[in-house]
């Protein structure tokens, strides 16, 4: 029973199918009832069956905390296949029940703690004379994005929604004499401050 798929052919096949069902209902009502019962049962099973696992993807999360993410891909008979690959899959079934949960992407991530190195410089006698802080800021293109606060015993560096670094200093410093530079090419902040 080949078919070209044109509307006339489909209608002809549907008409033939209904004729066969009518003939069966008249010639063998018990067989007809059994066939209809089985079809109804199969339809109910299809609609109540849970999603079936197809495969699992593994990817990497980079922010806010690095780690692995596993994504389970499932097939579900209740979600109809798209009519065309360019058309989206419907999110609801007959406007009654949500089939696919849409997760909001407006959740804000916590700022990252940037990589840094704190070095204590000593004089010829071996006494601490200055502190040098180097902070890697790959997401910063200008020093104007940074908010830097220095007190005698700590340093706070913030880049809104991107980085947050609060450091307790090992030595008290002269915050009035601090000097910071930002290397745009390396995206690195360097802070030098004398020890009290």
From TrEMBL:
> Which GO annotations describe the biological process of this protein?
box C/D snoRNP assembly; rRNA processing
Q: Which InterPro entries match?
A: PIH1/Kintoun_subfamily, PIH1D1/2/3_CS-like
The residues covered by the PIH1D1/2/3 CS-like domain are 115-196
One Pfam short name: PIH1_CS
- Which cellular component terms (GO) are annotated to the entry? cytoplasm; R2TP complex; ribonucleoprotein complex
Q: Which family does it belong to?
A: Belongs to the PIH1 family.
Which PANTHER family does the protein's record reference?
A: PIH1 DOMAIN-CONTAINING PROTEIN 1, PIH1 DOMAIN-CONTAINING PROTEIN 2
Please give the name of this protein.
PIH1 domain containing 2
Q: Which gene encodes it?
A: pih1d2
